[in-house]
Each structure stands twice: as structure tokens, then as C-alpha cells.
Design brief:
The structure is a single chain. This protein has about 475 residues and is an alpha/beta fold. The protein folds into three domains: about 5-45, no CATH class; about 75-125, no CATH class; about 145-460, SGNH hydrolase (Rossmann fold, 3-Layer(aba) Sandwich). It has helices at about 5-20, 30-60, 65-75, 80-85, 110-115, 145-165, 185-190, 210-220, 245-255, 290-295, 300-320, 340-345, 365-385, 400-405, 430-435, 445-460, and strands at about 180-185, 235-240, 280-285, 325-330, 385-395, 415-420. Strand 5, helix 14 and strand 6 form a beta-alpha-beta unit. The protein is elongated. The relative contact order is 0.10. It binds 2-acetamido-2-deoxy-beta-D-glucopyranose (6 copies). One 2-acetamido-2-deoxy-beta-D-glucopyranose binds next to loops. One 2-acetamido-2-deoxy-beta-D-glucopyranose binds near residues 397, 399 and 401.
Length: about 475
């Protein structure tokens, strides 16, 4: 018998005792004492019962008293709580802009039906919010009540403004472009934060993990790194947890895009040819996994990624002289094995809506998106000629370097860097968990792995002119 059951049964026993009738005394004097005891017992039992009910609320949450439901909703409306604690599911809302919270909490497994889930911290860092009906290509910020998202966006806009006001640090031709990291929580994680704060326990980072990760970043890309020492400007980490393609595009349009000129326009090279020495920035992008996580199908996610990449290239083209080449290190979606979130999407995003059979993994969707990327990115290079793109892939380098080698000297194709385990393609589940403890975000060890792949990408962009590894 569990402790919980014992707690539940103890008062019931008292009730059983009391069920024996209080006898009407045939000899009042004689029975008075016994009935007095029964009344006393009744009073004590009532007190015990009430105590059990109220104390039990803390332990059992929703199952205790109905009054906690309103409280729960109020808590859920609190942004920080929403993103760090409860495994509460946002239901499909009927409002077009998707801002409102339904008051109904939909349980997703038996444990939840027993009433445990609403207050129990889970592996889910934020509740499921269905975005499958949104246009992934239409720039749109998060709702105004998402205070943490807005606060971080403002902070990033400020950082971009400060960066744009800095004087580029180069006195000779030895300079390297500024690195701009764009993305969601995985990119924001480079700063050791989520929505600007230390991530909650659901991230499953160890003690001091945040500062370890910042050290990893410093070592590879920071101002004292091999790259940083020669960079025109310090790197920018422009990631916001939960970001999806549509809000990423909005972020670009609303201040999270650096525009300052870092080098004088090269004379005589405005014929649109790609020249390393004219390159001012390299944009490192990872976006789209939260489209899938919000219940968006792969095709829409691909459309969103396409729109995001094209927006970035358009903004580079519009904001710089024709001689300035665009450079993107584009990351495939990282593998994610947080299967419980895939299950949680149903309804409405189910494998079979008739039988309400949920998806049990994101991986088929991730693969579908990643398979579409090479051709998608080729389209970008075709439409924005003075552009170099390196695609970082989690495929293993099986010796087939054909796509890399065939076009290595062409400005009109992308280059693919197959990083395998350095992009988390671990065959071994345990190894995967050692690098991605919550099965979605890297820890310091994982960021260290990924940094190697990113540096391969940077080296490739620079035509192997620099030694990074
Ligand atoms: C969270 O994930 C870890 C590792 O995948 C697992 O060991 C743990 O049981 C999970 N916790 C919950 C509450 O599901
Ligand atoms: C990055 O982390 C540092 C240290 O925690 C913090 O002071 C800073 O505000 C963070 N930057 C952003 C943009 O969140
Ligand atoms: C463009 O200009 C650069 C520098 O002047 C030159 O090296 C290159 O050959 C030119 N490319 C074309 C296609 O004319
Ligand atoms: C969903 O399940 C029902 C009942 O088993 C089946 O008839 C139907 O074909 C399934 N639909 C899909 C899309 O698999
Ligand atoms: C393919 O490229 C990788 C990295 O660029 C290199 O390490 C590997 O040796 C190449 N394989 C072949 C068969 O050329
Ligand atoms: C490389 O490409 C050529 C032509 O596309 C093909 O015949 C060859 O088998 C490929 N090599 C490998 C190792 O896949």
C-alpha cells in the first residue's frame, strides 16, 4: 500500500467507526458516557477530515479541491511559470490570432487523468501550443502577453544597436567577418540562458552548465578565440527560446539584423563575384524545429524555413553594397528525441485523428525537412548570386563527397558538410543523452561537439583559408 493510499484510507476508517448507530439510551445514565465518546469521536473525525482535504491539496494538486483549478490557471498565465514548470497543455483555441488560453486543461496520459500532471514539473519546458494553422512565412511576433519573449527581443535589439555603433576593429587585411548566430533555444543556449534566464530543471543541465557553455562559446567563437581575435566585431547570439520561422522573420525585420558597414566597399569588385575579402558577416542559422514542435507539418515547416532564409538574404542584399557577399552557415534541424512532446501534440496533430493515435517521434518529420534542405538552399543561391552557403548536415561522411567536390569552385551551388556525430547523429542512445540530456537541447559537452561542426562550416566558407580545427 502506498503512502498516498494510506492517507486516503485512514479517515475512511474513522467514518466506518462512526457508522455504528448512536443508540438512544434506554438507561440514560448508563449510556451517557459511551455516547459522549461517540460525539467526541465525530468532532475529532470531522476535524481530521477537513485537515486531510486541505493539506491534501498541496500533495495532490488538481485532485484535491476544485478551487485549485482557478489558481492553476492564474499561475499558468504567469509567463515564467508557464515556461518553466507545469505540464499543462494549451488546447486548440478558436481565436484567429492564437493568443487566448482555453480554461480546459487536456490531460494526455493516464497519469494526468489521475490528476497528477497539472502541477508536476515534467520534461516539457513549456506547454504545447498548437500553431499548425498559422502561416509559417508571415512575419508575426509572439502575443503581447509573452513578456519574456518580448523582453529578450528588446535586449537583442539593443545588442544589435550597440554592435552597429561599434567601430570595426581591423587595421590590416587579416580580418575575419563578424559571426551572427540566429535561432531558437538551441542558439540562445550558447549564452547559457532560456528567455534570458537560467533554464529550469527541465533542461536537465548540470550544476554550472550555463557558465560551462559560455566558456565553450568563448573558446571557439568569443573575442579571445582564434576567430574572435581577428573578427571585425564581437559575435552576436540572437536566439530566443521557442522561436519559429514566422517570429524569426519578424525579429529580423524589427531590429535583430545588424546593418553597419564593416569594411570600405572594395573598388572594382562590384561585378557580383564572390570575394572573401569583401565579406562582412557570416550568419549562422538554425530555425524550424519549433514549427514541428508546435504541430506544424513538415511541408509548412519547409516553407517557413525557405521564407526565413530568403528574408535574411534579401535584407543582406538591401542593406549592403553589391560587392558585399552574403554568407550563411545553415544548420539542418538537429535530431530530437523528446518523444513525449510528439505524443502530446495529439489532438490536434495526430498520426490518425480517427483513432487519436499520436505520433511517437519527431524524427520522421525532422528527416523530411532535412532531406528538402539541399534543394531549398540551392534555390537561394540561384536567386541571390553573390552568396555562399554551407549546409551542416548530421549525415555521416561515408566517403561520398560528391556534392561537395563537384561544385567546390562554383558560386552557384551550396556546399554540404557532413558532420555526423558532431551534429548529434549518435547511433547510441546513451551517447545521445550524454550530449542532449533533455533530448532536445545540447549541454556543454554537446555544444563542444557542435562547435567542431560549425568551425568546419566556417572553414569551408573561407575556402579553407584559415585554420580553425
Ligand atoms: C525525463 O527524461 C529523462 C531522460 O530522458 C528520464 O529519465 C526521466 O524519467 C524523464 N522524466 C519525466 C518526468 O518524464
Ligand atoms: C547572457 O548571459 C549573461 C550571463 O547570465 C546575462 O547577463 C546576459 O543578459 C545574457 N544575454 C542575453 C541576451 O540574455
Ligand atoms: C569581378 O571583379 C573581380 C575583382 O576586380 C575580378 O577578379 C573578377 O574576375 C571579376 N569577375 C567577373 C565575372 O568579371
Ligand atoms: C485511421 O484509423 C482508422 C481506423 O483504424 C482507419 O480506418 C483509417 O484508415 C486510419 N487512417 C489513416 C490515415 O491511417
Ligand atoms: C570528404 O570530406 C571530408 C571533410 O571535408 C574529409 O575528411 C574526407 O576525407 C573526405 N572523403 C573523401 C573520400 O574524400
Ligand atoms: C559520384 O557521382 C558520380 C556522378 O554523379 C557517380 O557516378 C559516382 O558513383 C559518385 N560517387 C560516389 C562515391 O557516390
Amino acid at each position: 500500500m502506498t503512502t498516498d493510499e494510506q492517507i486516503r484510507r485512514r479517515p475512511k476508517k474513522k467514518f466506518t467507526l462512526l457508522l455504528s448507530p448512536i443508540t438512544v439510551p434506554s438507561h440514560p445514565q448508563q449510556h451517557h458516557r459511551r455516547n459522549y465518546m461517540k460525539y467526541l469521536l465525530l468532532v475529532i473525525a470531522t476535524a481530521l477530515f477537513l485537515t486531510w482535504m486541505f493539506a491534501g491539496t498541496d500533495v495532490r494538486g488538481e485532485s484535491g479541491l476544485s478551487s485549485s483549478r482557478a489558481g492553476q490557471r492564474a499561475k499558468t498565465m504567469n509567463i515564467h511559470h508557464k515556461f518553466s514548470k507545469p505540464n499543462v497543455i494549451r488546447t486548440i483555441n478558436n481565436e484567429k490570432d492564437g493568443d487566448s488560453w482555453d480554461s480546459t486543461f487536456v490531460p494526455y496520459n493516464e497519469e494526468d487523468i489521475n490528476g497528477e500532471a497539472a502541477i508536476k514539473p515534467s520534461n516539457s519546458s513549456r506547454p504545447f501550443q498548437y500553431i499548425g494553422d498559422m502561416d509559417p512565412t508571415k512575419p508575426q511576433p509572439w502575443p503581447k502577453d509573452e513578456a519574456d519573449w518580448w523582453a529578450l527581443h528588446e535586449k537583442l535589439v539593443e545588442q544589435v544597436r550597440e554592435s552597429d555603433e561599434m567601430l570595426p576593429r581591423h587595421t590590416n587585411d587579416d580580418y575575419l567577418p563578424q559571426l551572427v548566430f540566429y535561432g531558437d533555444s538551441i542558439t540562445e543556449g550558447w549564452n547559457g540562458t532560456s528567455f534570458g534566464n537560467t533554464p529550469g530543471p527541465t533542461r536537465m543541465w548540470g550544476a554550472g552548465e550555463s557558465s560551462k557553455i559560455r566558456q565553450v562559446f568563448e573558446k571557439h567563437f568569443g573575442e579571445s578565440s582564434a576567430w574572435g581575435k581577428r573578427a571585425l566585431l564581437p559575435p552576436l547570439i540572437l536566439g530566443i527560446s521557442g522561436s519559429r520561422t514566422y517570429d524569426f522573420i519578424w525579429r529580423l525585420e524589427n531590429g535583430e539584423f545588424p546593418t553597419s558597414r564593416l569594411i570600405a566597399a572594395q573598388t572594382g569588385s562590384d561585378n557580383g563575384s564572390f570575394e572573401l575579402k569583401s565579406m562582412e558577416r557570416i550568419h549562422i542559422v538554425l530555425i524550424g524545429t519549433n514549427n514541428l514542435g508546435g504541430g506544424m507539418v513538415p511541408d509548412s515547416t519547409i516553407a517557413g524555413i525557405d521564407a526565413a532564409g530568403r528574408k535574411l538574404l534579401q535584407m543582406i542584399q538591401d542593406s549592403s553594397p553589391r560587392s558585399t557577399p552574403a554568407a550563411i552557415v545553415f544548420n539542418e534541424l538537429l535530431p530530437r528525441k523528446d518523444d513525449f512532446r510528439a505524443v502530446k501534440m495529439c489532438p490536434p496533430r495526430c498520426k490518425n485523428l480517427t483513432t487519436m493515435e499520436p505520433y511517437t517521434s519527431f524524427m520522421p518529420a525532422i528527416h523530411k525537412v532535412n532531406e528538402a534542405l539541399p534543394n531549398l538552399l540551392r534555390g537561394w543561391v540561384n536567386d541571390y548570386p553573390n552568396t555562399r552557403i554551407v549546409l551542416l548536415s548530421s549525415q555521416n561522411d561515408d566517403g561520398n563527397n560528391n556534392s561537395t567536390q563537384k561544385n567546390i569552385n562554383s558560386n552557384f551551388d551550396i556546399r554540404i558538410m557532413r558532420c555526423g556525430e558532431e551534429m548529434f547523429a549518435f547511433e547510441n542512445e546513451q551517447e545521445f543523452d550524454e550530449n542532449m540530456p533533455d533530448r532536445l537541447h545540447p549541454n556543454a559537452k554537446g555544444y563542444e561537439m557542435w562547435a567542431r561542426c560549425l568551425k568546419r562550416g566556417l572553414t569551408e566558407i573561407m575556402d579553407n583559408a584559415i585554420e580553425l580545427l
